[in-house]
Structures are given as structure tokens and as C-alpha cells.
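Input for the complex:
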Amino acid sequence: MLRTVICDLARLRLSGSASPAAVLITQVREKGHLSRPRLRNPYWFIRQQRTRTDDLVTGENRTFIKEVVHDTYGVPALIKGTQTYEQKQLIKTTEAPTDAEPWTPAVRRCGLIARKIGQYPLWLKNGERVRTTLLQVVDNHVIKYIPPEEYRPTQRPNVHHLNKYGCVLVGAECTNPALLTKEYCGLFRDSGVMPKKNLARFIVSPQAALAAGTPLNVGHFRVGEFVDVRGKTVDHGFQGVVKRHGFKGMPASHGVTKTHRRAGNIGGGGEKGRVWPGTKMPGHMGNRWRIIKGLRIWRINTKYNVMWVQGSAVPGSTNGLVYIYDTILPLRKPKDAPPFPTLYDNADANEPDDIWYDQVHSFKEESISYKPE
Amino acid sequence: MNVNARVLSNRLAQQCSLKRIVTFSTKPTQQAAAVAVPQQKDAANSAPVRKPIVPAHYRFVYPEFLPDPKVEWRNTVREKLERLDMLDRRRQIELPEFYVGSILAVTSSDPHAAGKISRFVGICIHRERCGLRARFILRNVIDHQGIEVVYELYDPTIQKVEVLRLEKRVDDSLFYLRDALPEFSTFDEQMEPETLEEGTPVPINDIKVVLRPRPWLERWERQNLLGVANIDQYIKDKHRKSAEKVQKPWEKYDMMKHYRATIPEEEQKEIFAEVHTELHTLELQRKRNKRKRSFVKPKQLA
Amino acid sequence: MNQAEVSKLISQLRITMRPNKRHLKNSEGPEGRLLKLRKTVTALVKHERIELFYNRADEARGYAELLISNAIRYGDRHKATMELADYWLLEKQLVHKLFKVLVPRYENFSSSYTRMLKAPRDYPGIYYKKSVLEFRGNPFPALVPDYTQNRNLLHNVLLDEARKEFRREQLAKMANKFAAETAAPPALATQENDAGN
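Predicted:
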């Protein structure tokens, strides 16, 4: 209704501009700007999973479909501790590009998609115990690099940064393409990578661009460096103030009635006689994206693509997805060049599986003993 | 034992086969015959039968190799890496078999001790956690002061773990020793290790501990403890009633609850099959070393 | 991270299990929950196919599976198993059925002992989801018709044709390859002859 009216008015105005003398010009305040979408989702935000129906496909045909999948993408294989496919069709980029620019502290490198697989302690050489979280890099491949000129971010960046950074689209965990929609599978066609379950984009400097099909492994980061880890925190639902903000609650007895886990006072009187913004109150807890910054990598296992990072507060549940970036904390940024743009797999058999930071006590070493003074 | 029972019942069944009223059991009539005969054959041939590779007692000896049964926290790769690390540590240090109730001596390096090394002797009152976090609590009374030390089993600052007396107690954890008379948790620091003959089962010490009068740290009367002698002496009727109220006799039948608290047998087999050879060689090595040690000593004297 | 309990040894369930138990509302607490569930298990063992609310069926299913797997593992001379059967089966003749009928039936099974199907709920009626819980190998006719062999469905016909073409292509490729291998030396020879001429 409203729209038709606006259209009519617009037409009036148009005709007015064509022949100004004929029609009376009325000013129209357009309302279209209110409903204009501010965020435009990137093109890979499309429906992923096909509707699962009972296809009633005969057993013969089911094996045939599987055979075709294996024929195009390779047989299922366990590579670096992750169940995936052999991917023989992949455009192999195992060698570093020759014209790569050198690393400078200002460039932004690509990140990794990982799974948080659990936590256990490690010990330092001085006998101190550190709690670590294990992050497994799950079968990452570069899907596409979008150069700065073409990259349209969802939110327009600051004018200073306009067109400064490109974007690398990375996928993790191969999956059976028969379960996915045609459009989603189409995202992967040019890269030669098998359709992946998870996608993530990383904002990178154009120097750190990666060719499609490049595999990303834990070797991308080095032991002793610091990383930021982004994940979605565990959903706790609507929680009270004791669990959500760690309030103490009130005593269980001594005449206390009905206020054992309540917040108590939420504001004063007089001039401040209102609830101040930001007052801690009950509400939804968790299920938010959070970045934990500056975690040191204590140890890396290249055989299973696992890294041990400091602390047990990595956001998300065990077996949940997290994203690993170079840290943005200025004092913990790497001083010398990390593998740039990434570590290309040179398949060196002599390299040990486990790489320990030199402060960490390896379990293969003898027990720690202190020298008597 | 089982076989004998089956054979006996088989005979019985044959005797009363005419009547066909088999009230006690149905399985043996047809199957016991089938089972018993191959077993006799096995005894004769003994070649085709493969014994279960992993000994059945491994889950008691190495309980920390079994992961936490909570489904949300499990991950095969993590568990595998953890097991590899545990084996690496076990190659460096001898971590012997022990149970709650065994008396241990733990030597660990301590930056604050004189000589940078401390040795603590005590009774293991609790074992908990799994994987690299596995830990146990030792308790002793030294200078009339009860002392408990928590040791992590895989902590690299531990230099030696000796089992001075290998035995079990009747309860799963012995926290009640904290409320018992001090003589029940007093152990001599200069205690000599007692050796058990190989192949003997671990003895169960059914000693009854005498508690101090109330107040206690916990409500022991509610925990159905078998190793306490005089719990009735100090509790009143109201305690007895409240203890009855909190009992959960139905949990015995809650099979899913048990299932969620255990690692199923198939998975246990897989896990122990992975570490068995390594653990077994370590055990053998340890035995050889022990023999060597006992053999070398008289030589030096002579 | 807690230590797994080692005193008991239980075989693995062949069904997907929820990590935590469902909260089935019961005024008598956890005991009442079991008392209610054992009625379901008894009914299942008795009738071999029952229709009930989904949540209760799913909870009871695990108990039924474990009861059978325990019975298979320990037999009827195991005191603890007998106690379990006595508790879970309210009608005592069903204990005989468990050991004499169900155990022989499932001894060599590699799949789960029970099957659960979603059932339609009556409209208008109670909102709860319904399901059918049944033992495998029960004497009743199957609930779901077997469509797996239906070749005349359109997509099966199309897939059949695609498969045939795929095989033909594969064969052709192999034949070409073989021909190329066998034909290669003469071709080379002719080239050489040409060069010589």
C-alpha cells in the first residue's frame, strides 16, 4: 500500500522533472533508506545442507553414488588424525611462490580453523605446571583469495583501511558432497578442493595472499609464538546473577528469606536514582563470539596437526570449532618472520613429530631435579 | 570353576532330561555341552585358542589410561596423544601398581627442601582423575600432626615412587582416616618395602578403623563405610534416620547410570590393546632390574 | 576429568545414547522414575512391540538393551544379573522369557536388540511426540514397508542408466588406454620410417 503510494509519487516527480511546467512538484521524503539492508552477507552464506529425505535409492545405486564421489575426490582417508578424502584432484601447491614478498611486522597473515579437542597439563622445566588446551587443525584448505579491490566486506571499513586488505576463504573438514546443496558445492569448483563442512574468511594483507588449494597446517604457527583464539562460548541459557557474574548471593540462614541467590541492591537514590546502564543483572549467558588473546603455543604435534596453547579458557565446548589468528597484542607480536605466507609442506621425514617450546619439559626427558646451592 | 559347574549341571540335566522340568537353568542343557567340549579340546591342542591379549586386571592396575566417560569431553585424538605422553613418562620413571590403602614412599624434587629433594611416606587415601591429571593423596601422621600430600602421578618432579606395602582396603577412599585415631594413619618413615610373591593376588586389609568422637569432617554414617568399627557409638537416632533418608538403594538397578560412568568393554579393549605391549615390556624390564639389584648386592659385599 | 569406574564391566550399547539422562517428571524423584521405566521395560519384553511417548521410549530403550546384553554376557547363573532381571521385569514369567527366548535370539546379533520408530501423534491430542518401540526379530509384520529394492522409482531408473553409462565410459577409457599401449610401438616405428624416408 505504502509502497504503491511512494511509487506513484516518484512517478509524479519523474514526470515533473521531464516537464516541469505541467505538474505541481511535491517534495517526497523517501522512506526507502530505512529498510535498506546495511549488512550484505558474503556470497558464501548460502544454504549448505540439502533436505534429508528418504530417497529409497536401491543399494546398488547407493554404492554407485559413493563410487562416483570416490572417483572424483579420492577414497576416504585418515590424514593427520582427521577423517577426510584423498583429494587427488586437488591443485597441489606444495611449493612456495617464488615472487613472494618478505614478511614485515605490519602484514596480516591468514589464520586457521581448528577444533578444540580437550585440555591437559604440561610441565615447564622449572617444575611449574601449566594448563593447556589442545587445538587440532582440521584439514584446512584455501578455497579462494579475494584481492582488496574486489573484496566487499559486510561492514564498510574505516576510510583509512579502505581497500587495504584482501580476504582468504578457508574451508575445513571435507564432507560427502551428496549431502550438500548444488550451490554450496559450486563454491568449491574453481579451487579444486572437495566441498568442506566449515568455511571462514580471514582478512589478510595482499602480500600474504594464498593460492586456492593450498593446504594449511599447524606449521603455520611456531612454538613459543602467541595467538588469538576466537570461538563461540558455551551456551548456559538464562542465568542468575550468581552464575553469570559470580555474585556471592546471600546467607542460607540467619533469618534470610527468599533472597539466597539474588543480586540485592541495584542502585542508589537521590541524583543517581535510577538503574545505571551496565548494571550486572540476570540474563542470557554464553553463546557469544569471544576472542581470547595472547595465548602462548607451548607445543606442536605435526603428525596430528595439534597445538597446545596456554590456559583452559579457550571459548567454546570440547570438539567445537575455533579460529586461530596471529595475536594483535603489540608486545606479543612475533619479532622475526613466521612462515610466510604459510609453511609449505616439504614432507621432511627427518623432522620430529613433536616440537616443544624450550621452556617446556618434554615427557621423554628425565625427571626434573633442582641443583643444590 | 565355571566349567565345572556347567559340566555338573549338564550331567544333572541329562539325568533329569526325561522329566524336562529344568527349573534352575536352561542355558547349560544344550550349550554347556557345546561349550564344555571345545574347552576340553583346547586343553589338548592349546594352539588354536588365542588368549585375550590384554590381561583382565589392567583396568585396575592402570585405571588412569581409561578416559573420562563423559561423552561431551571425549575426543579420540586427544586421548591418544595423552596416552602417548603417559607412556613416554612411564619410560622415564617406574610408576608401580598401587591401590587405595597401599603404603607409598614418594621422592620428589622440591626447590624449597634442604637438598632439593623430599621424601614422603604415607598411606594412599584417594586416587582420582584420569590421563595426565591422575593424582593421589598420601597421608601420614608426623610429630602428632596429620599431613596429607597430593601428588600428581605424571608430574615430572616426582623422582621415585616406591610401594612399601601393596594392599587394598575395603573402601574406595579412606578420607575417614582424617577423623580416625592417629595410630591408624601413622607409618614409619624408615619402613622397609615388603615384597609380595609374584602371582599372588593383592591382599585386602579388612582392618576396622576407630573414629574419634564427633564433630567429624563428613557425615560418615551416611556413606556405608565398611572399614570403620565404631560409627554406631557416636551417632544418635536422628543421625540414623537422616542417614536412612539419603540412601539410594535403587541406584544398584540403574544400569544406564552405571553405563554412563564406565568405559564399555569394547573400548577398554581397544585402549589397552594400544598400550599393552609397551606397558608389558616396561613391566618385564622392571622385574629384570629388580632381580639384577637383588643379585648385585651380595657380590659387592663379597 | 574424573576417573572411569572400573569395578563394573559393561558391553557397549549398539544404540546412540544421550550423554545425560532425560528428566522424566516424576513426583517420587529418581526412584519413581525407575519404577515407572520398569513398567515400560516389562511391557516391552512382554509384548515385543509397544507404542508410547517418545521420551519414555527412548529412556526405556537403553535399559532394555542393557538388560539383554547383561543376560547374554553373564547367563542366568549370575546373581547380580538375576537381581537386575527380577527388578526390571515385574511379571516373573518374563524372567524366563528373557533367558530362554531373548538371549538365544540375540546371542549372535551384531546390531541393536531394539528398534525405535517415530509414530504419528493423534490430532487434536496431546502435543508429545510418540514412538513405537519394538524388539528386533519380533513375530509381528514389519511396520515400515521395504522400499530399498524399488527399482521402478524414477530416480532409481535414472541412476541405473547413469551407472551403465559410467561403466561404459570406464570400459572405453580402459580400452583406449590398452589400444594406445599396444599401438604405440608401431606408431613410433612409422614415424621413424617417415623420418628415414
